[in-house]
Automatic annotation (TrEMBL):
InterPro entries: dGTPase, dGTPase-like, dNTPase_2, HD/PDEase_dom, HD_domain, PHydrolase_assoc_dom. This is Deoxyguanosinetriphosphate triphosphohydrolase-like protein. Gene3D superfamilies: Hypothetical protein af1432. CDD domains: HDc. PROSITE patterns: HD (PS51831). It comes from Belnapia mucosa. The keyword Hydrolase applies.
Amino acid sequence: MADFQSARAPWAVDPRHSRGRLHPEPADARSPWQRDRDRIIHCGAFRRLQYKTQVFIFHEGDYFRTRLTHSIEVAQIARSLARRLRLDEDLAEALALAHDLGHPPFGHAGEEALDSQMRPYGGFDHNAQSLKVVTSLEARYARFDGLNLSWETLEGLAKHNGPLRRPSAYIAEYDRQHPLDLTTHASAEAQAAALADDIAYNNHDLDDGIRARIFSIEEASGLPLIGDAFREVKAAYPDIPRDRLVTETVRRVINVMVEDVVREANRRIAALDPRSVDDIRAAAEPVVGFSRPMAEANQVIREFLFTRMYRHWRVNRVMQKSKRVAQLLFQLLHGGPQMLPDDWRVRAGEAGSPTCARVVCDYIAGMTDRYALEEHRRLTDPNIPG
C-alpha cells in the first residue's frame, strides 16, 4: 500500500517545520500533530463530550449522537479528505477532535443562555471557548496551563471558519501573547476539518431526526442529494429494512459530498498553484470547499433541518427548559460565588464582578448536560444537600 503521508503535497503543513509551541518542549517519536491529537484525546474536556448534547439531551436515548460521537465522526471524514488531498492527516484529525471542546451543556440552547448572560462582559462563543480550553482551562501539566498544543493546531482552532477581522475577546487576548496570524486563512488541513464538520453535522442530524420520528425518510427524500440517494437504494434493494434504508441513504449522501469537496478543492488548488502552506493562507478564498451546486444543495438541507428538527416542538420544549437551567446557574453563581467549588471560588473573586462572570461562565461551559441538571437541583432544592 502506498505511503500517502510520504506523498504529502507541497502546500500541506510539514511536521518538520512546525512553528512550535508557546512553551518549548523536546521532540519525541511522534509528529507535532500526533502529539497534539493524543493530548486532546486524553484531556478531561474531550471525555466530557460524551454527555454533551448534539441535538437531543443525553437522557432521551443512548442511540442519538453526542458531541463526542459527532467529533469522532468529523475526525473520520477529515482524515479521508486530508488523505485524498495529500494533506497531513494527523493535523486534520487533531483539529476535528478538538473543534467542539468549548461547547457548553445543552448544545446551542446552552450557548445562547451563556451568551445572553455574558453580553455585558464580551459575550460567549464556543469557538473561542475551544481555544481557551486547550490554552488555559485544562490543568494537567506541571510546567504550563492548557495542553501547550502546536502553533498550527491553535491556528486551525482559531481560524477554521476563515480569517478573523474582529476576533472575540479571548482570541484577541491570546493572540497578543502568541500571535496566530488571525487575518489570514488557516491551513488546508483546518479547512478540511471545517468542511468535515459541515458534512457530518447535516447528515448525522438528518439520521437522528428520522430515528427520533421527527420526520420520515420519505419526507426528507424531497430534498436535493437525499432524494437521489434514497431512490438509488430503493431501486437496488427493493426489500431493504427501513433502518438499513436510512443508513444506506445517509452513507451515500456523505460519499457524494466528500467526492464533491475533493473535486472542488483540486480545481481551486490547480487554479491557485500554491507552492507552500503560506500560499494557502494568503489565498483570496479557502481552497477546500463545496462546489456552488453542492453548497446550494447543502443549504437546502440545512434549512429543512432548521425548520423541521431544530424548531420542532419536542426539541424546543427541551431546549427552552435547558436554556433556563443554564441562565439560572449563571445568575446564582455570579451573585453567590461562595457556592462555587474551592478552586473556582478562589479565582472568581468578588460577586457580580466581570472576573467572577468569566469564571462562572467557564465553570458552566465545562459541565456536561447531566452535571448541569444535577447542579441546578443542588442549588435550587433545599431538600438536596449541597
